[in-house]
Amino acid sequence: MIATALPDTGAFSWLVVLTLVTLSTLAVNLMNLWRSGQAQKREVSFTEQHPTRAEQAQIEARVLETERTIDAIRNEMKSDRIALMEVGEGRAKELHNRINPITENTAMIKGQMEAFTTSFQNFTKILCENMTRNSQDKK
To answer: What span, in angstroms and rounded, lies between the C-alpha atoms of 34 and 31?
Structure first.
């Protein structure tokens, strides 16, 4: 009876730990909430410093060099694209040159098969007619 009246020490210690963790989390959140209400310090500098003539000349030179580089890259890309298109067209022509004879031969075989089928049909028709005549003649 006494054992059931006392709480389990393992479960009780876990409840104490969880309670302490919850309270400490609550305290940290309240401190953060209180701090966020205070004014924040920001450092922004608005000094009016313009570049000197030498710095301005350097910047302009760098911009011009960058523009020249971009133009050179564009021209190279254009020539590469043209070269790739020409190569692709050459491949397509070669492929068509390989396919066209196959197509012609296939058409020729198809024509021969149609002629053979027609002549075979005519042959079977004549054969059936002859067989029919022979059977009528025998009667």
So the answer is: 5
Helices (H), 6-52: 9-36
| The pLDDT of residue 61 | 96
Contact 59, 51 (CB under 8 A): yes
Would the pTM of this model clear 0.85, i.e. be above it? no
Query: How far is residue 70's CA from residue 64's CA, in Å, rounded to a whole number?
Result: 10
As a whole number of angstroms, the distance between CA 77 and CA 85 comes to 12
Helix (H) or strand (E) holding 55: helix 53-138
d(CA 66, CA 84) in angstroms, rounded, equals 27
Which residues fall within 8 angstroms of residue 51, CB to CB, at 6 or more apart? Answer: 59
Per the listing, tokens 């919850």 go with: 22
pLDDT digits (tens, 9 = 90+) for 87-138: 999 999 999 999 999 999 999 999 999 999 999 999 999 988 888 887 777 7
Using DSSP, state whether 139 is helix, strand or coil.
coil
Query: Taking the domains of the chain in order of start, what are their residue ranges?
Result: 54-127
